[in-house]
Amino acid sequence: MEKRHLPKSVYNWVTASGAALAVVSFALIALLLAIDVLAGRTSVYLGLLTFVALPSVLVVGLVLIPVGMVLAHRRQARGETTRFSRIHFDLSEPATRNATTIFVTGTAVLLVATAYGTYNAYRSTESVEFCGTLCHDVMQPEYTAYQGSPHARVACVECHIGSGADWYVKSKLSGAYQVYAVTAGVYPTPIPTPVRNLRPARETCEECHWPEKFFGGRQKLVPHFLPDEANTPYPISLLLKVGGANAQTGQVEGIHWHVARSNHIEYRAKDEAREEIGWVRLTRADGSAKEFRDPEGADAGAAAAVRTMDCIDCHNRPSHRYRSPNQTVNQAIAAGRIDRSLPYIKRRAVMALDTEYSDTTAALTGIETALRDYYKAEYADLAAQKSEAVDAAVAAVQGIYRTNFFPKMKVTWRQYPDHVGHSEYVGCFRCHGSNLQTAEGDRISSDCTLCHTILAQGGADAVPTQLAPGGLEFAHPEDIGGAEKETRCTECHHGGAELF
Ligand code: HEC
Ligand code: HEC
Ligand code: HEC
Ligand code: HEC
Ligand code: HEC
Ligand code: HEC
Prior knowledge:
- The radius of gyration is 32 Å and the shape is elongated.
- By secondary structure, the protein is of the alpha+beta class.
- The protein has helices at 13-39, 44-77, 94-126, 128-133, 136-147, 156-160, 165-183, 201-204, 325-334, 345-353, 360-378, 380-385, 387-404, 483-486, and strands at 218-222, 236-240, 244-245, 252-253, 263-269, 277-284, 289-293, 307-308, 452-457.
- The strands form three sheets. The protein has a four-stranded antiparallel β-sheet, with no helix packed on it. A three-stranded antiparallel β-sheet has the order 1-2-9, with no helix packed on it. Strands 3-4 form a two-stranded antiparallel sheet.
- One heme C is lined by residues 241, 253-255, 257-258, 265, 267, 277, 280, 282, 309, 313-314, 420, 427-428, 430-432, 444, 450-451.
């Protein structure tokens, strides 16, 4: 008989294939890890293979080793061979000693590797790349908008999960379902919002921003161009009363008054998107409360859950904003990416964007054809003279489409209202200036100076000419007979081509 270095029970097919699997997968893991370290940058796909798929194979291989040995022992016990009839463990035997050494060393190496692997699997599933690119088509709109947002350097998990083990586990449970939904192709398009069970904003946003920190005003210059032949500029300069609660003085004012610790605002929405609000209650620090109801549909929304107002009730799109054609074209003209001297370019660009296209390729061609055909037909001489300006305008409008429209996921600015402001979505006017009132008939104010003062508006150039610290009354660029004071802006404006 030949000399064996290991117990006889090791020499069977199951154990041998288990050992082979384990060795091969371990070698692959080591190789991939080396690539990972040398490349200095982890790819999500490689991470999944290195830290999830291969270790699973490794574990299966390792489990097969003792299974094969036990089976072999049973066969021996049944007398299929007579030499080993009971489990035999004697460290003085070289074969047993070898097996034990291999097993102990192997387990130690495996434990360290598993700890490292688990840590990396954790890191990998927390990475922006994992969240944003693994299910490429599904997350593409959110990921693209995110990259252009002020939070582009804040990881997805900072807002979607936050700190603490309980939310980590919750997120992985719902994540497991999402992986299934994507694999099985049963996910909804567009992805519905508000996100169910989103962690309360005060636990996530306030890791970095807190109400005591905001104080005073913030100047904002919003570019506008009229849809006329000259694309007349009509910039508006606002001083937004950001406000907040000052920890030292205790003073609470302005827009962030809603989230000061001394105020508690609750509401019930009539719809899933929280765009129609049916009931509001304000409770102050002294316990006094004020309830605003809808006098007509008194019970409207009564079935809906009461929600405490937090950051997300205004900043619902802090990092996934899909901007409207009107806003993006205004910005592109102001930035010089679209030449304002092209007649009617504002109107035509908005119209080209606010058109239904079957997919992105069709849209890019459609935009190009629409703009070129228009200038060829209406301004042939000028189009020839300014062919570079037309080329640049086409490219700029296509760029706007690529970063704000995602036909595959049915995502445009219309699907995701942004609650900050009131000129394209109802926003603040869901409560302010709505018909909600107290028993005494008090309403939530819509005074045009409650939230901002208009410092300057209009002017021949893109820089406002007059500056009025006391504030100006809003002059609507088109005479609409004072309707801008009586009705919501969204009665007419939706950010698309609806007014042309
Ligand atoms: C600054 C905080 C923040 C960051 C960072 C962030 N999100 Fe969001 N995300 C939100 C908020 C807020 C919502 C909407 C919540 C609501 O209305 O209920 C949202 C909604 C979503 C939705 C639901 C669909 C939609 O558009 O409303 C998806 C999907 C999503 N985020 C994915 C991501 C991914 C992927 C990343 C990283 C690439 C990311 N988020 C980073 C705050 C954030
Ligand atoms: C990990 C830190 C972090 C978290 C968490 C975070 N933010 Fe921010 N936020 C930032 C940074 C950094 C900026 C950029 C500051 C700047 O541009 O001056 C910013 C900017 C902003 C701005 C100003 C945007 C602008 O146009 O200037 C708003 C509004 C905002 N965050 C809201 C939120 C909300 C709402 C949440 C929770 C859903 C949140 N943030 C969570 C770090 C964070
Ligand atoms: C009632 C609606 C509302 C609520 C609630 C709200 N904000 Fe704001 N916030 C605003 C508006 C409006 C602005 C100014 C808008 C702009 O700059 O475009 C603003 C501005 C900000 C800015 C930029 C401040 C600056 O000085 O530049 C940050 C950061 C911010 N909010 C974070 C938060 C956080 C965090 C919360 C929750 C604790 C919160 N907001 C709650 C409406 C709100
Ligand atoms: C869910 C309803 C609701 C929404 C949405 C809402 N508010 Fe308010 N807001 C209130 C209530 C209630 C009051 C207090 C009214 C009162 O005291 O009679 C208030 C008061 C205010 C005040 C005065 C604070 C003070 O100093 O007394 C400002 C400024 C304000 N809101 C700005 C905004 C802005 C800006 C938005 C949109 C970004 C907004 N609100 C959205 C409910 C809302
Ligand atoms: C409850 C608070 C609130 C009230 C009341 C309010 N506004 Fe505003 N308004 C805002 C906020 C917030 C923004 C800025 C939105 C942003 O940051 O994009 C804004 C922006 C604007 C803008 C600039 C819009 C743009 O697209 O350039 C105009 C003009 C304006 N408001 C006019 C008015 C007029 C007129 C009234 C009175 C009928 C009024 N606002 C009442 C909160 C308010
Ligand atoms: C009765 C309908 C109506 C109402 C209400 C209305 N607008 Fe307009 N608005 C128009 C028309 C029509 C134009 C000119 C065509 C265009 O620009 O789309 C216009 C143009 C504008 C423009 C210049 C073009 C651009 O870049 O958007 C601004 C800014 C504007 N409106 C702001 C407002 C604001 C802010 C409110 C609410 C306080 C408001 N409008 C309410 C009908 C209306």
